[in-house]
């Protein structure tokens, strides 16, 4: 398995990963995608620069059956090492401990900068959809 930045040639394979997990609304046309490939794409994470030195970590996914192998951690390290600046993300409670391992800390939504809120609104993560609770985190 190897971790690399996805190119235009990888878009269909990344899209297949999203669709196979019911994430058909995830875009492969925005941001920078890092992927783990072992024949198939087995995981990916997208980072989107929403303002200078302001990045949103989005669409983190590891293929079912490959979770627990450290793929997600490798993807996060690749994404975080690729860019400077402050990173923001939106997640569910079961992922908070995972992201804390990389220096992310919970922040209230009142601390989110406007470009982050605008992006999260554009992907329908802010405000949280009915019946969901979202947690916001910041690193660096």
Notes on the structure:
The protein has 140 residues and is an alpha+beta fold. Helix content is 26%, strand content 33%. It has four helices and seven strands. A seven-stranded mixed β-sheet has the order 1-2-3-4-5-7-6, with helices on both faces. A hairpin with a 2-residue loop joins strand 3 and strand 4. 29% of the residues are buried. The mean pLDDT is 96.
What's the Cα radius of gyration? 14 Å
- Pick out the low-confidence regions: none
Structural class: alpha+beta
Report the count of strand segments: 7
Give the oligomeric state. Answer: single chain
Largest sheet entry: 7 strands, mixed
Instruction: Identify the strand order in the major beta sheet.
Output: 1-2-3-4-5-7-6
Distance between the termini: 29 Å
Q: What helical percentage do the residues reach?
A: 25-40%
Number of helices: 4
**What's the mean pLDDT score?**
96
Outline type: globular
